[in-house]
Amino acid sequence: MALAKITSVTGTAVVVPGDDIDTDRIIPARFMRCVTFDGLGQYAFYDVRFDPGTGKPLNHPLDRPEHKGASILISGNNFGCGSSREHAPQALQKFGIRAVVAGSFAEIFFGNCTTLGIPCVCVSDADRAKLAQAISANPALQVSVQLKTLRVEAGECSVPCTIKEGARQALGEGQWDAIGLLLDGAKAVSALEAKLPKISLVSLS
Amino acid sequence: MPQPRAGQGKNLFQKVWDTHTVRTLPNGQIQLFIGLHLIHEVTSPQAFGMLRDLGLKVPYPKRTFATVDHIVPTDTRAEPFKDELAQGMINALRTACRDFGIEFFDIHSGKQGIVHVIGPELGLTQPGLTIACGDSHTSTHGAFGAIAFGIGTSQVRDVLATQCMALDPLKVRRVEVNGKLGLGVYAKDVILHIIRKLGVNGGTGYAYEFAGTLFDRFSMEERMTVCNMSIEGGARVGYVNPDATTFAYLKDRPYAPTGQAWDAAVARWASFASDPDAAYDDVVKIDAAEILPTVTWGINPGQAIFVDESVPSVATASAEQKASIAEALEYMKLKPGAPIKGTKVDVCFIGSCTNSRMSDLREVAKYVQGRRVAAGVKALVVPGSEQVRDQAVKEGLDKIFSAAGFEWRDAGCSMCLAMNPDKLVGDQLCASSSNRNFKGRQGSPTGRTLLMSPLMVAAAALTGAVADCREVFEVEAVGA
After folding, report:
1. Is the pTM of this model over 0.95?
2. ipTM above 0.85, yes or no
């Protein structure tokens, strides 16, 4: 499978402030009553975008006209903590998000994003504040997440970012979805499997 | 970061990792073989869809086991379910298991239940295994000395199609708790305390090895409760080294080896335990005696206090915590600086993969026998599996709960994440034995959750407010 080589993501950005934003917040569990990921985009951050009582929009950053079409999400520390639900990055991707910039990421969420080709880069609190300021001043500003130079650029503002080297390589080389590589190892898997104990019902063993 | 030096012993994580390493991938990650794969209805139907789209098969179907837990109603399980979407999910899993030759522990099989309850009780979860499941609380299985990963749906696809995952190794932090717990203090309090101390993201990049004299004395169910919530502290993996307690638990379980194979298995299992001179990337020591009954007050599991403490205030918080405390206080509608004790509750939930096993139910039943749930409080007891349900009924616990005013339900995840009909309404406040107090977690976008041990939930149920279980029940010496 030929995958895109992702070395940068460029687009407008939206800031969703807060630390420890969990995957229940990103996609509430009731929207996971489904057997495909289709249509999840509209439910991203649903319970903080719409008033639970009236259903009226709450003017969440994602819904503000100036951020329409934003493809880079900027948030706080420990982004994506909690549930392993891939529904969370799937919902963000289907909403139009192509890269996430945060203080830090929860591990399972980071892996799920990488597998979908969504780079997750870490930027310090102070530098994220600079980015937020630049975006607030000009929401139409083109923001660029550069994986080769490890910078996030927003007009005059350019700040350093970090990402796990393995993920950076996988994205850059178009190997972010590992299934092709894993399938290539089938022979070695079979040899190892034969050496390991089986799991079987006592009556069958 | 200190790294293991040559000649030093290995910890369990390294041994299990090395045993299951297939090869190093071109992208630098490790192709890791997964010995046991568990699936359920929420995160796997899409993976089967991907397999079908790619024309892939399941080469090792005997290493995957399925059950249904998240969406199962706990009042009536007659099909079709009232929720058509839920029925669609269970149907999709049934079809997939049939098509791909995977064992499915369906409702009414006598073996259905929360995936992290049935794996151990069936003896599927064994020491030295690599385990994966599309659920972050898969860390539970580490209680047996397995390395158990919560994974996303694309990785469920990977494991189905290749029995492998592409992963980077984790660092290992030994969390050593020594000494004895006070009366009325439980494994749940231990993990809430660990998360409070180390932070909700303190474990990112680490596997937690839970050790020390407290864990040596803990039962398997207590070890499971702690490992279950490793992920709430940011650690994707948590484990306890296998020992005589582990082996005794597994003996005569349906999928555990027997006869000579049993002896060989025990010897093999024991060999995975961390060496006495094993190296760690970090070590944290905690005195068990400092841990008291713990309650969360906020919107993540690290926002916890002892039951005799007060809700924090923004004014007294450190600069870096002010924003998150303000956000939590606003959502929880709790009075800053007020004692948590006495906070009125609307709903009490005993259940979830954290605390729904026999020892949890027996402990609560022992104390609520002959007493009554407070007027106006809705209280639920949801057993973790059909086996737990049946055993509890056999022991008459269902009657004790019902007589005390608790609703006795059927097995499932229920109000932990409320994907089934069990939900909070409006901004109800719930005392819950589950694992997450995130905004909206229990099914209402404004619902509020206080995490605590099952006996603390029972104390809240009987008094109608957050209460100290030691005072409500005059608790006797329990646990480890």
Report:
1. yes
2. yes
